[in-house]
Structures are given as structure tokens and as C-alpha cells.
């Protein structure tokens, strides 16, 4: 492009020079001058063409040289490229060959190892199974032992609580017994307590109840030490009487002897009242013969018989059959209230007269106290 522009410029400069020379010749020399001008112009054109030709040739030579160099370079690149491709092909072939070889060897090794493992597993399977069984049974035993242990811990805390309660109860019984001996000051020891007889806490409660509330007319279901203790209370307050109902002649005689031995025959009577069938709301119950019971009114009823062996809720008839013989402010005391049967008896009594006041006393065997008139 540059080369072409230069050529055009040179031609323009030459043309301008030629026109200038021609114009000068015409002005100065006339028609002769024209011939000179044409000749000069031809020479100038030839010179110019020669000049341009040389320049063009030099330029073309340079281009040819460049092209040759480029060609050589391309050939070299092509050669190098084909050599490189050949090398790469060879490398790829050798790599894939070695990969195939390597894979095959590894596969064989892995297969061998697999066969060894499978054989070993087969050989040891019975042992594994036994171990699994042992592990399972150990786990079961451990879980079972854990259950047993927690049950034992529970039981132990239950036993500890029961022991604490028993300890407190023992102390309370000893305290009641000491106080009872001090208050009554008996010439003979009492029969063994808390077995067939009432416990010291109930005996002391009865003694206090009679003395503090001046209970004077007592009827008792089931004779024994309670009869003796309440007879002591009557003698202390100087008035009143205890009537004890006893279904067995043997124990009626025994309690009578006990009273006489303590010099209390005037304060308590044991009535031998064999059990008979009594009717309460169309139901038959075995109970002390009502014909033998005094008219009352009784301000204290102690229910400690007939024994459970006679029948379920054997103590129930006491309230329905003695209700008409109760004083207006009577107290009914039911022993063994910890037992299910006595709780049922107490519930039936309270249902029969919801106006009565009920208190559960924390005694060794449990006591229910019912008052026909609420205490003021
Ligand atoms: C639960 S016990 C209670 C007797 C009485 N309330 C007491 O606490 O001593 C009831 C029955 O024991 C019987 N009993 C009375 N004296 C007895 C004695 N010395 N030995 C064995 N049992 C006797 C009588 O049959 C009585 O009805």
C-alpha cells in the first residue's frame, strides 16, 4: 500500500516537472522547444519507469524471500507436527498396552484375594455364627440383668421405705405401750399385743378417748385387751360400763378372767353372743345375736369382730344393727382399717350416712373413726 502511494507521488512529481519544463520551453523557444520537451519527457518517462521497475523488482525479491522463509517454516512445522503426532501415538499405544497388562494382573490378584477371603469366610462361618449367637445371648443377658437390676433397685428402695416406716411404727408402739403402762399402772402385764389383740397405739387412743370425752356407754364387737383397757378408763373416771360381744365361749371366759384378775369386773362385761344369721335389707349376714345386746344408747362402739374368717365384710352389720341404739354424738371405731375388707365396710357405712364425720387414724393396723355428730 505504502509502495503504491510512493509510486503515485513520484509519477505526480514527474508529471508536474515535465509540464513545467514543457511550459518553459514553449515560452522561451517556440515549436523547436516542443520537440525538446517531448524528448525530455520520453527520457524522463523512461528514467521513471526504470526507477519504478527497479523498486518493484527489489520489492518483489523481498516478498519472494519472505514467502520462501515462510514456506520453509511451514514445512518445518509440518514435519515437527507429524513427528510429534507419531510420538504421541506411540506413547498412547504403549500406555494403553501397559494399562491393559496392569489391569489384567491386578484383576487376577484381586480375584485370587477374593477366592482366599471367600474360602476363609466359608471355613470360619460356623465360628462366626457361634460368636454372633454368643454376642446376641450376651446382649440379651445384659438387658435382662439390667432389667433385674433396676427392679432390684426399685425393690430395695421399697424395702428401705418399708423399713423406715417399720422403724417409726416400732417407736410409736413402744411409746404408746410405755404410756399405757404408766397411765393404767396394771398389777399384771397385758397379754401379748398386736397379734390377735389390738396394737398399743389403738389401745392408748381408746383409753384417751374414753377419759377425755367421758364416754360412759361402750359396746364392743370382739373381746380382749381392748375390753380391759377401756374398763381401766371407766374405773379412772368413776362411771360408765363396757359391754363386749364375744362369739366364742372360750374367749368370753378368758376375757372375763382377765378383767377379774385386774379387778375390773364391775366396769366391763363380756357377753357370750354366738353368731346367728341376721337380715339386713334382704341380705343374710352372720353376726352376734342381737337379742343379747343391751338397748343402749351407746356413745362408743368399737368394732374388732367377728373375725374375717366368718365371711367377707363380716364387721359390716355392726352399724346397721346398732344404729338405733347409738347416742346422738356417738363415736364408731373400726380396727384393721388397713385391710381391704375393712375399708369396704367403712365405705358402706359412710355411704349409709354421709352426714357422719370420718377420720382415718395413722395406727399400726389402721383405724377408722366415725362420729355421728361433728366435734364442736
Ligand atoms: C381381732 S381379735 C380382737 C380382740 C380385742 N378387740 C382386742 O383387741 O384385744 C378378735 C377376736 O379375738 C379372739 N380372742 C379374744 N381373746 C383371745 C385370746 N386371749 N387369744 C386369742 N384370741 C382371742 C376373740 O374371738 C375375738 O373376737
Automatic annotation (TrEMBL):
GO biological process, one term: methylation
Transmembrane feature ranges: 7-28, 34-53
GO molecular function: methyltransferase activity
Keywords: Membrane, Methyltransferase, Transferase, Transmembrane, Transmembrane helix
Keyword Plastid: no
InterPro entries: SAM-dependent_MTases_sf
UniProt KW Metal-binding keyword: no
Pfam families assigned to the protein according to its UniProt record, in alphabetical order: Methyltransf_24
PANTHER family referenced in this protein's UniProt entry, alphabetically: PUTATIVE (AFU_ORTHOLOGUE AFUA_6G01830)-RELATED
Protein name per its UniProtKB record: Putative O-methyltransferase YrrM
Amino acid at each position: 500500500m505504502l509502495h503504491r502511494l510512493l509510486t503515485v507521488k513520484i509519477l505526480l512529481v514527474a508529471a508536474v516537472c515535465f509540464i513545467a519544463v514543457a511550459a518553459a520551453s514553449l515560452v522561451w523557444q517556440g515549436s523547436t522547444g516542443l520537440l525538446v520537451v517531448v524528448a525530455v519527457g520520453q527520457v524522463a518517462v523512461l528514467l521513471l519507469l526504470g526507477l519504478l521497475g527497479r523498486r518493484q523488482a527489489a520489492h518483489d525479491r523481498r516478498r519472494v524471500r519472505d514467502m520462501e522463509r515462510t514456506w520453509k517454516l511451514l514445512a518445518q512445522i509440518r514435519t515437527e507436527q507429524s513427528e510429534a503426532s507419531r510420538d504421541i501415538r506411540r506413547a498412547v499405544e504403549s500406555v494403553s498396552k501397559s494399562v491393559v497388562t496392569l489391569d489384567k494382573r491386578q484383576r487376577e490378584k484381586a480375584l485370587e484375594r477374593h477366592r482366599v477371603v471367600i474360602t476363609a469366610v466359608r471355613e470360619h462361618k460356623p465360628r462366626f455364627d457361634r460368636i454372633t449367637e454368643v454376642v446376641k445371648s450376651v446382649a440379651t443377658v445384659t438387658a435382662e440383668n439390667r432389667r433385674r437390676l433396676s427392679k432390684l433397685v426399685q425393690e430395695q428402695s421399697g424395702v428401705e421405705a418399708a423399713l423406715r416406716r417399720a422403724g417409726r411404727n416400732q417407736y410409736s408402739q413402744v411409746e404408746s405401750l410405755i404410756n399405757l403402762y404408766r397411765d393404767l399402772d396394771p398389777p399384771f402385764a397385758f397379754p401379748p399385743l398386736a397379734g390377735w389383740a389390738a396394737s398399743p397405739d389403738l389401745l392408748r387412743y381408746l383409753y384417751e378417748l374414753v377419759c377425755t370425752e367421758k364416754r360412759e356407754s361402750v359396746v364392743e364387737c370382739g373381746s380382749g385387751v381392748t375390753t380391759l383397757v377401756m374398763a381401766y378408763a371407766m374405773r379412772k373416771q368413776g362411771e360408765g360400763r363396757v359391754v363386749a360381744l364375744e362369739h366364742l365361749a372360750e374367749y368370753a371366759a378368758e376375757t372375763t378372767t382377765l378383767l377379774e384378775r385386774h379387778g375390773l369386773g364391775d366396769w366391763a362385761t363380756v357377753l357370750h353372743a354366738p353368731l346367728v344369721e341376721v337380715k339386713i335389707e334382704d341380705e343374710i349376714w352372720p353376726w352376734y345375736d342381737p337379742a343379747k345386746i343391751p338397748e343402749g344408747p351407746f356413745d362408743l362402739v368399737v368394732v374388732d369382730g367377728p373375725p374375717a374368717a366368718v365371711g367377707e365384710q363380716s364387721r359390716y352389720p355392726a352399724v346397721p344393727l346398732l344404729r338405733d341404739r347409738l347416742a346422738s354424738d356417738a363415736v364408731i371405731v373400726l380396727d384393721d382399717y388397713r385391710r381391704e375388707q375393712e375399708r369396704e365396710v367403712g365405705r358402706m357405712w359412710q355411704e349409709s350416712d354421709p352426714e357422719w364425720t370420718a377420720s382415718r387414724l395413722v395406727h399400726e393396723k389402721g383405724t377408722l373413726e366415725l362420729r355421728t355428730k361433728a366435734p364442736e
